Amino acid sequence: MKFGKQIIPLPLFRALQPAYHFLLAHTAAAWYGFPSRKMTVIGVTGTNGKSTVVELLYAVFRGAGKNAAFVSSIRFKINDSEEKNMLKMTMPGRFALQKFLHNAKRAGCKYAVIEVTSEGIKQFRHCGIKFAAAVLTNVTPEHTESHGGFEKYRASKAKLFYRSPIHILNGEDAENINYFSKIPSARRVVYSKKNLPQNFNPKLIGDFNLENIAAAHATAVAFGISDEIIWHALEKFEDVPGRLEFIQREPFAVIVDYAHTPDALRKVYETLRNGACRLICIFGSAGGGRDKWKRPEMGKIATEYCDEIILTNEDPYDENPLTIIKDIESGFSQIQNSKPETLNEPQTKNYKLRTILDRREAIREALKSARVGDTIIITGKGCEPWMMMANGKKIPWDDRAIAREEIAKIELGE
After folding, report:
1. Whose CA is closest to 157, among 139, 174, 141, 171?
2. pLDDT tens digits for 97-111?
3. Domains of the chain (ranges, CATH numbers)
4. Which residues, given as ranges, of the chain have pLDDT below 70?
5. Which residues pair with 243 in a beta bridge?
6. Which of 129, 160, 163 minimizes the C-alpha distance to 32?
């Protein structure tokens, strides 16, 4: 990297990066007048479920008549004003984030909910923000190569809790609750889906969404919202874009979900397996050399639940798409070559496997092969607006729009 006429050695550049990011974050906060000091800012972190919890909390605060804003991987909202997140980045840069909080404050927002990522924390994007509370959804392996291992990944998320007086922790996440409970706090709340009212009837499906609902409830209670208002808002909450979003329900279901980690994929498949005549699964894995370990794991999970598997492109970046597919397929052979030690261990299903790199064509072929009562589940991208290709090329994309377009073509006989 050049600085004037001098060249900064790469090791020195890397050593200076944290200080640069830290300084930039506080400069951005000062530039916009430290807007978070005049609002209640809640940070939501975890591996899966962050966007859903953010949206649920926003719905509760709005249901309580409060001005509220949120930032997520899906969209930005200030009261009823909405802008789609086109950044391919969950947590915006420091100046963009502080500008958002400044605009939210000017709009009279009392609450702001921010989806906080480990990558964002690593780059100090959370600095300069006064957090009133930190909410943890769960922690499973993700970005381990970027962080240098699972422990460093989890430690990165923990930094948000050192900056927040109120900690909202998931009692269902047994492997991590002890770790996060050791972090000093002024108040600690542990939530569980087991504590939800028996007569509660949410529109969101899946046990994992019950955990997300419990997180939103516990957080709202911590800030003085009444149970009556909370449950009313949560019960009428319908869906989150690109998160188990139904594109159609009859004659067969077509669903789009963001699941891109083994844990999330398993939970989605478990939810949809109940009642499905056949489960037709379309998925791939991101390239760019990131988290290669999860590719065979996702392959193994697919063999347990799917009747038909179509492997396809996701976001290959500069990586050979066929190499990514082969990594996923290695998980198929691993489970086929293993013998369950007990009857309780997952058995490999008889499944049909196809590879169709063109993601649109993969969706179309799944639609053509579906029968009445089947479920097609398209995972990995949710409502992301881009597909990331080689040489920095971005292709406009939306799994939901593509599925609707292909359904319409088939209905017209094209």
Report:
1. 139
2. 999 999 999 999 999
3. 2-236 (3.40.1190.10), 245-411 (3.90.190.20)
4. 1-16, 144, 275-276, 334-349
5. 240
6. 129
